[in-house]
Structures are given as C-alpha cells and as structure tokens.
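Q: Predict the bound structure with zinc ion.
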Amino acid sequence: MRTLIAVFFCLMWYNPNLLYSQIPNNTLQITYVANAGFLVASSTHKVLIDALIKGTYAPPKEITNDIMDSKPPFDSVGLYFITHYHEDHCDPVLVNEYLAKHRNVSLVTSRPTVLFINGNCYEFILLKNQFNELTPEGNQCVAKTIEGIPVKAFGLEHAPYYRNGIEMNQNMLNVSFLFEMDGIRVFHSGDIQTNAFRDYAAKNNKWTDTVDVALLCYGLFESGMPDLDYVVSTLHPKCIVVMHVPPDSNEACATRIEQFKTRFPNIILLKNSMDSQSIDISGMKNE
Ligand SMILES: [Zn+2]
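A: Predicted complex:
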C-alpha cells in the first residue's frame, strides 16, 4: 500500500496535467496583474507577461510580493515575457530579483531589454542560462520553441509619442508575442497602434497568423469602431482582452467596450488587479 501511495505521488509530481487539473483543455485562465501585466494559464502551462513593475501603474504591493514569492496562483510559472523596457512594463530590479529567486523560470525578451536590465543590475548576467533572447528587426518575426511553448516574436513599432517635434519612442523596440499554450494561440501586443500591423502587413504581403485570445492595448482602438474592425479582420481572434488602460480612463473604456460588443461580442476588460477570467475557446469561432 505504501508503495502504491508513493507511486501515486510520483505520478502527481511528474505529470503536469495532474498538477494543473483545475484548468480543462481548450481553456485559458487570464489573471490581470496591472497595466499590461498578466498571468496566463492553460492546462499544463503558466506564463507571466510584463507583470513586475513599479510606480503609478503598479499593482498593490501584496500582489507584487505574491509574484516574487511564487504564491498561488503565481506558482509553477515557466516563462516570463517582457515586451519592452518602458517602466510600466518592466522594473529591472524586480525582474532581476525574481529570476534570481526562481532559477527554473525562463526569461523571454529582446536583447535591448536584457541590456537595459543588466545596465541597472550588474549581476543580472549571472542568470544568462535563463535568458531566451528573441530580437526581431522592425516588421520582422523570429520564432523559437521554449519549454514546450512555441513562441513568435514580432517587431511591431511602439506607439509614437511626440514632444517638441521629436518622436520619443523611436529607439524603443516593442516586441509583440504570439505563443501557443496547449494548442491555444495567445497574442500580447505590448504598446502598439493599428499602424504597426499595417506596416508589418505591407512589408510581409500580409499578416498571416490567426490568434485565439488577443491581449490588446487600449491605444490600438484609438479611432473606435474602425480600429476594432481592422484588428478583428487582421488577427481573426476568438476573444479580445483589452489592457493598458490609463487609470483615469477605466470608465470611458468600459463604456466603449460595451459599444464594441455589437461588432465583436467576446471582448472583455479586466478592471481590477487579480480580476480573472476563464476563457473556454472550444465553442468560439475565429472571427
Ligand atoms: Zn511603452
């Protein structure tokens, strides 16, 4: 009997399907951290994206502490993605500490972001075995399978911002990630506007990757319905999660999303840190 119990626990330990049995196949659990930061979980994988940040956009301190301590639901994370190193997407000190504390977590980001973190944290390079650098040129894509998750990294232009006639974001490489978790294709835009998709499509004949669940920044919908139309007819998503909403625009954004539902019903906004949505894609069609 004792042997049987031991065998059972060994199976539990080695079979990730059992470890995550609470999430069924074809289902994605999306948990909002803050700004563009999310925990995304499928039946056998968990990833974090742009989740460790400080300042105005940061989540409550307890949430950051739970991530740093890998407390559920932030346990068993496999990949940590960073789209770019603006402070509302990446705090170098927190990321360095997190990766040093959790040596089984793989970092997925571009070379400029690695250099930025290393410039702030001298010892970051000691963690280089955890680095997976995906550095596409502008309007290019690079692909790699990391820890069983196929990842595509797209160099999509960061949303422009002008001051004194100078484009402040011209040197910032924004990487939009498309990754497949247990057969579910998840897209995280980072900071872009629809022009980024148009430029990519123009340079590559067209955008060819279909998406199941798209995490899209609010800035993508600047012109309202025409932008929604363009995004839906480009990515053909089953579900859209709107993110990176400026705190003072939460209500305006919620109202806008209600209007968007007449065109695309499966569009949602997770307003508060730790709001979580289970998305079963099996009954949904790619638009
Ligand atoms: Zn940015």
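A: The helical segments are 2-14, 16-19, 61-68, 92-101, 111-120, 194-203, 225-235, 250-260.
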